[in-house]
Amino acid sequence: MAYEIIKASEKDRKEILALYDAQKGREFCPWTEGYPSDETISFDLSRDALFIMKEDGIIKAAISLEEDEDVDRLPCWDKNIYPEGELARLAVLPGEQNKGLGRIMLQFGMDELKRRGFKGIHFLVNRHNVKAIRCYEVFGFKMAGECHMYDQDFLCFEKAF
After folding, report:
1. What is the per-residue pLDDT across 56-91, written as a single tens digit (0 to 9) for each?
2. Domain ranges in the chain?
3. What does the DSSP 8-state code read for residue 110?
4. Cβ pair 44, 90 in contact under 8 A
5. Residues 14 and 59 sit within 8 Å (Cβ to Cβ)
6. Contact call for residues 74 and 147 (beta carbons, < 8 A)
7. pTM
8. DSSP of 35-86, one letter per residue?
9. Which of 24, 51, 112, 154 is the most exposed place for a label (fewest CB within 10 A)?
10. Are the beta carbons of 19 and 93 closer than 8 angstroms?
């Protein structure tokens, strides 16, 4: 596979939004009509925090480095691996799923967080998102706890680098 993972730019906005919209309503996907949105993309672009995988000029996957103080303040995180970064909005085109692209993007995101000086990673996953949980287990993430935020029940996962 000849793909490249690059920082997203404004010219990618429409295609990223379509990628996000393609996830909504799929099994295990908790995303709603209003999330993620055009505003979410603006937030990520403003922080150089949105990365895309392109192959033959087509965006196949995306991932964001997240900033969410409410998630950062959860008491379940291991203080010994502070500061931890967070990844969010991992999306793979429906026709490209189950080919390992999600794992490639996850590894890229972890490498980018490490490059930016984080000592570990934490994130939330909807407790019913079996596909995502299986993907994270491959990388040795540990469940740190559970929480209820944004009208959903989440499992809290983390890992030191």
Report:
1. 999 999 999 998 999 999 999 999 999 999 999 999
2. 4-160
3. H
4. no
5. no
6. yes
7. 0.91
8. BS-HHHHHHHHHTT-EEEEEETTEEEEEEEEE--HHHHT-TTS-GGG-SEEE
9. 24
10. yes
